[in-house]
Amino acid sequence: MGSFLRLVGALALIALVASFGLSAVYNATHSITEAYKQAEESQARLDALSCDPNAVFAETVTDSIVDGKPFVYYTAYKSKGSDEPVGYSFTAYGVGYSSTIVTIVGVDTTGMICGIKIIQQKETPGLGSKIQQVVSQNTLWAVMTGKAVDEKGMEPWFQKQFERRTVDGLHVVKSTGQEGILAITGATISSKAVTDSVDDGLKMLLKVTGIGRKEATPGEDAS
Q1: 56, part of any domain
Q2: pLDDT tens digit string along 156-199?
Q3: From CA 15, how far away is CA 18, in angstroms rounded?
Q4: For residues 85 and 18, what is the distance between their CA atoms, to the nearest angstrom?
């Protein structure tokens, strides 16, 4: 009995030390991880909006709910102290096939999408993961003969489709002959998750900011 109690005590002590160790590691790295995440999101907002690299963003938290979360958007200004917006940004959360797809969206002052940048997804490799795929135009022969074109900075083809889109064009299609966002073959769920979440977010942004709203003419109801 005594040896059994000693064994239980030893295991409990090991578990306690391990628990404290994990807690210490988490506390030491959490702030670093959060800082990196915020820096990544800030850069993604700039990339999506194609702003001047000196642009600054002001956060606005609204009472509205989109995708089960409070809707938060950012107003971009040319520089600190400026009071004239150059664009807006928000984060969209789409439920895909195997993960929540997190997308940063940049919108100009007319309500048109400048671009999007997917910053988080765990979709099926080779299928849904293609939402972040950059398709190379270089052939094997071009590479072997040294004639390959520098493709640095190329954007994923799926995400590039969102450029210059308004709410009227945010729907998934399955054929290149149709107008809309062309779905990735074999990954319609992932394609639709991104498209629908961006659409929901853009509609809410237009609603809470009033950008893109048609100006009323004399005698016309602006509502």
Answers
A1: yes
A2: 999 999 999 999 999 999 998 899 999 999 999 999 999 999 99
A3: 5
A4: 51
* Within a domain: 52: yes
On whether residue 123 sits in a domain, the answer given is: yes
pLDDT of residue 130: 94
Give the pLDDT band of residue 223 (cuts 50, 70, 90): very low
Distance, CA of 125 to CA of 95 (rounded, Å): 16
Tens of pLDDT along 51-96? Answer: 777 889 999 999 999 988 899 999 999 988 888 899 999 999 999 9
CA angle, corner 162, sides to 160 and 167, nearest 5? 175
Joined tokens for residue 173: 């299609």
Residue 79 lies in domain: 40-209
Q: How many domains does the chain have?
A: 1
Q: Please choose, from the candidates 183, 174, 182, the residue with its C-alpha nearest in 3D space to the C-alpha of residue 128.
A: 183
Selection from 37, 34, 42 nearest residue 58 by Cα: 42
In the numeric block, which tokens belong to residue 106?
Answer: 């940049």
1 within some domain: no
Tokens encoding 133: 């795929």
